[in-house]
Fold this sequence. Notes:
Blueprint: H1 2-15, E1 17-18, H2 29-34, E2 41-49, E3 70-71, E4 84-102, E5 115-121, E6 129-134, E7 142-159, E8 170-171, E9 173-177, E10 181-186, H3 190-198, H4 207-219, H5 222-227, H6 246-261, H7 271-286, H8 292-310, E11 320-326, E12 348-353, E13 361-364, E14 385-391, E15 397-403, E16 429-434, E17 441-442, E18 450-455, E19 461-465, E20 482-486, E21 494-495, E22 503-508, E23 514-519, E24 530-535, E25 543-544, E26 558-564, E27 571-576, E28 583-589, E29 602-604, E30 621-626, E31 631-636, E32 657-662, E33 667-671, E34 677-683, H9 694-697, E35 716-721, E36 737-745, E37 774-781, E38 788-793, E39 798-804, E40 809-812, E41 824-827, H10 868-871, H11 873-879, H12 881-886, H13 905-913, H14 931-934, H15 937-943, H16 952-963, H17 974-981
Helix pairs in contact: 6-7, 6-8, 7-8
Amino acid sequence: MKNHWTKISFVFSVTLLFVIGNLSTNHFLFNHLLAQTEPSRTVRVIATPSSEAKSYQGFFAMDGNAKTFWHTESAKGKIAKPPHELLIDLTAEFEIRGFSIISRQDTSWNGAIDKYEIYLGVDSQNLPRVFQGRLKKTRNPQKLIFDAPIKGRYFKLRSLSEINGKNWASIAELELICDDVRFTAKPLTTLDVLSETLGKSFNPENELAQQYAFLTDNLKERSRFETIANEVYQRDSMILPEDRDPADIVLRRTAALLDDLRQLPDAPDLSAQDKKLKQLAEEVKTIETNDAVKRYDVYEKICKLRRQIAFTNPLLKFNEILFVKRHRAAFNHMCDQYYGINSVSGGGVFILLEPFGNSPKVRNLLEHSIVENGRLKGKKLENGAFVTPDISFDGKRVAFALVECNGDKKQRIHTDVSKGHWDVGDSHHIFTVNIDGSSLRQLTDGTWNDFDPCWLPNGRIAFITERRGGYLRCGRECPTYTLFDMNDDGTMMRCLSYHETNEWNPSVTHDGRILYTRWDYIDRHGSAAHMPWITTLDGRDARAVHGNFSPRNERADMELDCRVVPNSPLQIATAAPHHGQAYGSFILIDPRVEDDDCMAPVKRITPDVAFPETQGGYQVYGSPYPLSEKYYLAVADFTMANEPGAQAQQYVRGDYGIYLIDAFGNKELIYRDAEIGSMSPIPIQSRPIPPVSAIIASNVTENQPYVDPQKEKNLTATVSVLNAYESLFPLPEKTEIKEIRILQMIPMSVPSGKPSHDIGKREPTSPNSVVIPRYVLGTVPVEADGSAHFIAPAHRELVFQAIDQNGLAVQSMRSAAYFQANENMTCDGCHEQKRHTPVTLNKMPLAMKRAPSKITPIDFPGVNPFSYPQLVQPVLDKNCIACHENNADTSPNLAKMPIQNKWYASYNSLIKDYAFYSYGNALRTYPGKFGAYASKLYPILKDGHYDVKLTEEEMRRITLWLDCCSIFYGVYEKDGGETQLLGGVAYPTLE
């Protein structure tokens, strides 16, 4: 054995190969690089790790996809120290000639293995060690060929250390080299285990079998249910201490359903079902829990009775359901899922007839429909992908979005606001059709993605579109899409939201406003806030419903598909991931509950699925449509618990079916297509039309097919602040607020993946996000009682700062506001508590006794547009450089040169230790601990720095820079940045 070991070690030293070049991440492509001949057969193996993180399970190390990877447990308190092991059961004996390893292919090296050992043999409990070695820090494949094949069934890799000395281990791909065989791993799911345990009585393709496996997994999570018990809407939806197996669970939940249905108006007679349920309860008592086959048999009996009971619900008065068939998008990200280039062709718009009967039927709504207008006039919509349907209030018309999936998928990068970014054949467009299939009309077209149509009570249609212009500030080339509306024939478009980041899923509230989701991250964490907002039908008074400053680990990343519950103040939503799609777990939101930036207004409807990404859950549930506070139409795929479908992992089609779901934890499958997902179910019935004011109904005066900053420069709104001293957090003692400074935030006009320059030092809690440049428009006065009354620009995204008696910002927004033309907007204070009644309402605020103030612009350069070279460098040139150059060994360089990071030497010197760019909190601004007050530079200059005596204007320049997060540039574009770097004036493309 000793000689054999020496020989293998020697061979490794001369045969470890590095495949140079770009590694393709297509399935199995690396096999072409590593194997001598293409394998003719595939053997499915079982990979069992000693530790694994959720969504990074052991089987990902051999799934044939280098984008996915195995990673050991990474949650705090659960990290195990090396060694870490990955045991591969080949299911039979094979002659292994060698192996190759590929490290994870993303930007991180966490878990990349350094020292390791290989074991190979026929006895998993007594495997001989056949090799030990070290891996290099490379993302290329590293391959070892043994000098002679070694026969075995079990292959074990043992990671002894990580290249950075951390306690993790990770592998993107491990290939075992064997003549004519390709090994790929499969997850050992609960369905697999139950199939072996229950035998022929258990069909893993059966719906009830999949729910049984899902409940079995839930039973393993008792501790998690205990930790969230106070967040759950109905206790019966949890796993309770008395639950022994799925039969106990469905028995208890069915009883809760039956009891609740008896309380409803027009309640059915359920005495026969009650009698049968009690008989089954007695049967459950007589069967021992270790008699798995009989326990499964009685489980099925209870489920069949549950279905009878569920479909007697008097809320199911409709006999048709609208839905779309479609696949999940090909890219897993909350934004990318709605870019047409990521849509997978297939599906259509359908109606489910007699959904609660014994044999529901499906009608293709567009089977005989011909487009009557536009570019596709005379054609049928037979190909492409269909998303986001909606039904008019009278139940007679359907709106939906379609991408034809026949474009070139190339993105057009430009700053022309009159153009979109895609081929017309790979952009979503909105259509309407009558419920009988007649009058199919195309409402939108062009090179923008237009989707999420929503019928409004004023007769118009709200929708989500890229026509606002701009890109995300983190990650990649992702165009922004926000809220617009239009006439129901596609004319007279209007921008309702001038927000500069993405928005989703408009719906209508009981009082006639638009409820939608917004991604809001001004100078803060980029993955934190994607929560519901609300606005009027004409886009006024946009404000967060709740949760806009929620800590990420305590909440869902996103709340999507928000809808109001009939006859209730509550709202339903899907708790979804940031790096995923619009599926996850369901929640109810109560806007009446004081927002604690946590879970106070939120209750979990489906606690059986944790929040994806933030709490390790899966993308099981989606597109809920509430029938009441306790009953919902929705879609679900319970096998998604084994197929996370998250970013950087393999494509998962999603076999979603339509369900009737209740708050007690019961799920009844209504319809599933085995070939494609069934999504977005909506009852076909009329609904009450919410109220609409006469002003809103008639205030559209011109078409706005895209946002043109030049056409909208002189539009204004009137803003009133009742009391600027009203603050969520206390202001510093003796603070006197004298002014409100108004900043305009500039939408990102170039892709953020590889920006031509960084605007400034990035906020530490969001290092992947480009900082926003801003105009400093000027200030307006604040009266002695804290009130302000002023004219603000409309159709611009604004941030307000409260300025104290020293001319410094004592408070600043980390969200943003915008106003429609001629809007009159009033707010209580600066980040005041939402449900606090201000004392100033008892008397007329001083500012409201006069005409609104006009903004007083700042009278020195470098603020509009922003430019460090014009604002700050002249102060340094005049007062600082000479002394610092004479003391270069001990003083920071405050000159322009050398330029590093495309910033001046002075900026690089000051930003590191003296300026302000870190709030010290990922979400909130604490008054008096921000901007100049939180910097080291301001007190140095204020208290006197040698013989430096700045003028009042020079001091204002420095403090203004600090209050604006110490940014450098005021433009995103390369040409503008080069102009500003030379000290010239350059304006941003978008406003």
